[in-house]
Amino acid sequence: MLELKVDLNERSYPIFIGEHLLSDEGRLKQYVGQSRPVIITNTTIAPLYLDTLLAVFDAQAPLHFVIPDGEQYKSLEWFEKISAFLLEHNCGRDTCLIALGGGVVGDLTGFVAACYQRGVPFIQIPTTLLSQVDSSVGGKTAVNHPLGKNMIGAFYQPKAVFIDTKTLDTLPAREFAAGMAEVIKYALIYDAAFLDTLAELHSELSTLNTQSLQQVIYKCCAIKAEIVAKDETEAGLRALLNLGHTFGHAIEAEMGYGNWLHGEAVAAGMMIAANLACQRGALNADEVEKIRDVIALYQLPTEAPSEMTGEQFLMHMRKDKKNKQGKIRFILPTQLGQCTLVDDVSDETVVTLIGR
Ligand SMILES: NC(=O)c1ccc[n+]([C@@H]2O[C@H](COP(=O)([O-])OP(=O)(O)OC[C@H]3O[C@@H](n4cnc5c(N)ncnc54)[C@H](O)[C@@H]3O)[C@@H](O)[C@H]2O)c1
Ligand SMILES: [Zn+2]
User: Fold this and answer.
1) Is 74 annotated as a binding residue?
2) pLDDT class for 322, splitting at 50, 70, 90?
3) CA 110 to ligand 1: nearest atom
4) Active-site residue 321, yes or no?
5) pLDDT winner (highest mean) among 144-153, 318-327, 346-355
6) Domain co-membership, 343 together with 196
7) Which residue among 116, 133, 168 closes a domain?
8) CATH number, domain at 285?
9) Per-residue confidence band for 257, with pLDDT thresholds at 50, 70 and 90
10) What SS3 class is residue 264?
11) Residue 85's pLDDT is what?
12) What is the DSSP letter of 256?
């Protein structure tokens, strides 16, 4: 088992990465405490992993709440339903919530934890690759609003993150690939050598080799933990984690959420950002090819959807949360393994880049 720490003074917490952590009674109880815990999960994950976790807390008569599966349930409506459930069961301020699932369950549970009785402890047990390397770490919690994704939320850190790599055995291949987009993102913003590692480890990762998975997840969590420790509330540095996301969010919004998975849109978005960086002289053609090769190796898209125009990208990107003073802000590579935020890309450049 591997362990690392997110260093945030009194809000510091550990991330454990290993196999069978779902049934690691001693360690789980250490962070959940003595009170009756409440496990929040969804209809896909419950039949797979809920019983294992319930058994751990058997003596504490654990409660569980199962939401339907889907991004649309990361909503104020389900926030309210969970809150009502906690009240009906007289859950007090010492109740620990346990998020068992992907980013949807994690973001929603975290936001309930942040708000219920002004804050109760929670732990994350992420079960998708994306949530293991990204959403479970760093304390961003939120629900969606009809007028925008993740628009209502809070920065609220968990007490611990338990990454059980065995749960990836049941994750659909397409979801695994989508998670790899965020993994590749860490290489592009922080560590060029890690990009080579990802190319080398392709067959091990694709066959879910435990050691390789844990090594890669550890690396991603270490990078995210370091960035979050320096900039918890995204005053600056943390924005770099949005590489590929400005273009990616535009793709998700235009194509309809769910048609392109988040990671797929981010992969195409990173390629567009790499091409733009190349135009600006920050990357050379070989480096862009290298990025394209790794993205393609993991069966991810390397181009914008053919039906999307530059103007459609701009329309969505003008609404981006990162924008300041009406200017679209992009995260672009300055070299392999390093990125920066720029706000001087003209609309014409975007249209030319997209090519239609
Ligand atoms: N908080 C953050 O910092 C942050 C960062 C990135 C993304 N997010 C959010 O995360 C969400 C996306 O997360 P996601 O990609 O994990 O999606 P998800 O939670 O919807 O999970 C994807 C699918 O995989 C299923 N699933 C999960 N674990 C499984 C397993 N072990 N076996 C079989 N099926 C499994 C889920 O039921 C779902 O159908 C979005 O809402 C996004 O906004 C948050
Ligand atoms: Zn993302």
Assistant:
1) yes
2) confident
3) 1
4) no
5) 346-355
6) yes
7) 168
8) 1.20.1090.10
9) confident
10) helix
11) 98
12) -
The single-letter code of the amino acid at 308 is M
For residue 182, say whether it is annotated as part of any ligand binding site.
Answer: yes
How many other β-carbons are positioned within 10 Å of the β-carbon of residue 291?
25
For ligand 1, atom 41, the nearest C-alpha belongs to 104
Tell me, yes or no, if 182 is annotated catalytic: yes
Could you tell me if 183 and 101 lie in one domain? no
Q: Round to whole Å and give the CA distance between 173 and 340.
A: 32
Is the separation of the CB atoms in 174 and 261 below 8 Å? yes
Report the CATH number that the domain containing residue 120 is assigned in CATH.
3.40.50.1970
Q: Which residues contact 29 (CB under 8 A, 6 or more apart)?
A: 56, 57
From the list 175, 232, 234, 287, the catalytic residue is: 234
Q: What is the mean pLDDT of residues 226-241?
A: 96
**What domain range includes position 209?**
175-354
Long-range contacts, stretch 233-236, CB < 8 angstroms, 24+ apart: 233/155
| 3-state DSSP assignment of residue 63 | strand
> Closest by alpha carbon to 175, among 133, 139, 141, 142?
133
Q: Is 70 annotated as a binding residue?
A: yes
Which of 70, 242, 297, 266 is closest to 179 using CA atoms? 266
* Annotation marks residue 262 as catalytic: yes
Using DSSP bridges, classify how beta strands 38-42 and 97-101 pair: parallel, antiparallel or unpaired: parallel
Amino acid identity, position 38: V
In Å, how far are 139, 307, 310, 329 from 261, measured between CA atoms? 22, 17, 20, 23
Cα 331 to ligand 2 centroid, rounded to whole Å: 13
Neighbour tally for 307: CB within 10 Å: 9
144 vs 225: CA distance, rounded Å: 25
Element at 13 (helix H, strand E): strand 13-18
State yes or no: pLDDT of 321 exceeds 90.
no
Contact between 189 and 337 under an 8 Å Cβ cutoff? The reply is yes
State if pTM tops 0.90. yes
* Arithmetic mean of pLDDT, 214-220: 98
How many domains does the structure of the chain reveal?
2
- 179 and 299: one domain? yes
pLDDT of residue 104: 98
How far is ligand 1, taken at its centre, from the CA of residue 209, in Å?
Answer: 21
Q: φ and ψ at 305, to 5 degrees?
A: -55, 135
